[in-house]
Amino acid sequence: MSANGVKSLASRRAFLLQLAPKTERRIEGAILDDSHLRGHRLRDGQMRGGLREPRKAPLVIVGGGIAGLCAGWRLLQKGFRDFVILEMEKQAGGNSRWGENEVSAYPWAAHYLPVPNRGSKLVRELCTELGLLYEGEFEERHLCHSPQERLFLHGRWQEGLEPEVGLQKADREQFQRFAGLMQEQAASGQYTVPWEPGAKASALDRMSMDDWLREKGFDSPYLRWYVEYGCRDDYGSLAKDTSAWAGVHYFAAREHEDRGPLTWPEGNGWIVKQLLKKLAPHVVAGAMVTQVAIGARGVRVLTETNDWESKGVIWAAPSYLLRYVMEGAPDTSGIIYSPWITANLTLDRMPRQAGTEFAWDNVIYDSPALGYVVATHQSLRTRIDESVWTWYYPLAAVAPAEGRKQLLARDWAWWREFILNDIGKAHRDIRQCVRRIDLMRFGHAMARPAPGWMFSPARAALAKWGGRMVLANSDLSGLSIFEEAQYRGVGAAERILRVV
């Protein structure tokens, strides 16, 4: 080959390299949770020994999630200040914990509060106290900016989560009929938030949401996906594993609002921050309870470092943990917990896309995940380059025990590829935009309203159980939403005050 031929070949290779995709950028990140290691030691009975410093408090609250913090909030309202909140994690908040980096604050799980119904007096009371609600109007700066939601369907983004692109006449008719049935159910007055005060036992609880859809003749794949998404979003379960009553509750319990929800860059971490301004002196973080003993005159609560003597206890941690720390614990075997994993992706720039503009909540049709929330969506800046996206994935397609095994067995690199491939369905250049992915695993993230559980005698007995100790976690409701956690925490505070 001549020298000119070699030069020509080299030129062609250089040209082709320019056309080829650039080498994939390095993405940093980590799995940030390790509490399961201590939890498994507790489960296996390996954390009961050692010397502990004696401490006293008339009232101990175990668990610093929304239920525990709202119990403390009510105690302060009642003028009772001699209590302590023991939180296992380094940061209070439970499923409302948050993080922050050089770009933005961001949620780790719960990321919004629906605009409360007019009848939801307890949460409206809290909203008023926190400055969110004034003279019946919610503060604009706390309401979600538009656009709020969008769906990636048939290769492009559409506004709203109810599928519109590609629907046939029969699909649209089924959506209209479904909406009509939900309006009828809402008008019954039995679907309230919190649910227990207004509900009556229903045969719907004994069947699954999937069976209810089939019974009503709903076979549109778009409608069934829409309902399935709702079950996965609020309960971490598929429609076939969700009580039909709870499935209907998701669509019928909320009053229609053109505005909302209430949200912040750190999600419900904003609410936790406001509560901690009042409760910080009472909170002891990094205090894992290892043993509880109820006596005739009081309760002993042991952590790894302290031996607390108290007159009463509010157990606001997940109820299933009691069996590992207390003899004679109530039977919580009926509660099924859904495993989740969430990821926060730090982006150098927003990826390219087709269709409507970026929304706060962005969902990909037929994805096993729930999409992503944009932490910088509430920013008032006119131009946003860097951002943080919170991606959510309930492991609903497998049994919960298997899901928890998968959470622990799969390393960061495996989840990185899973997440990027999932988001890549809608954003092909996502790998060129992301510089960091951090993960948080929740083995027992939320209670699942399985068929037959909501109106069962076992759940009712568990909610009423107690004397010197009362239970307060939202898992008592079967629905792990903010309003239920607050309802259980406040109710437990009012009950325990009669004791202490």
Describe this structure in words.
- The protein is of the alpha/beta class.
- It has a domain of 169 residues: FAD/NAD(P)-binding domain, CATH 3.50.50.60.
- Helices cover 32% and strands 21% of the residues.
- Strands 1-20-16-19-18-17-9-10 form an eight-stranded mixed β-sheet.
- Strand 12 and strand 13 form a beta hairpin.
- Helix 3 packs across helix 9, helix 5 packs across helix 8 and helix 6 crosses helix 8.
- The longest helix has 19 residues.
- 45% of the residues are buried.
- The N terminus is likely disordered.
State the distance separating the first and last CA atoms.
96 Å
Biggest beta-sheet profile: 8 strands, mixed
Strand fraction: 15-25%
- Cα gyration radius (Å): 25 Å
CATH topology of one domain: FAD/NAD(P)-binding domain
Structural class: alpha/beta
Q: Major sheet: order of its strands? A: 1-20-16-19-18-17-9-10
CATH class of one domain: Alpha Beta
For the record, what is the CATH homologous superfamily label of one domain?
A: FAD/NAD(P)-binding domain
- List the total number of helices: 14
What fraction, in percent, of the residue positions are helical? 25-40%
Global morphology: globular
Average residue pLDDT: 93
CATH architecture of one domain: 3-Layer(bba) Sandwich
Low-confidence segments: 1-10, 12-22
Can you count the beta strands?
21
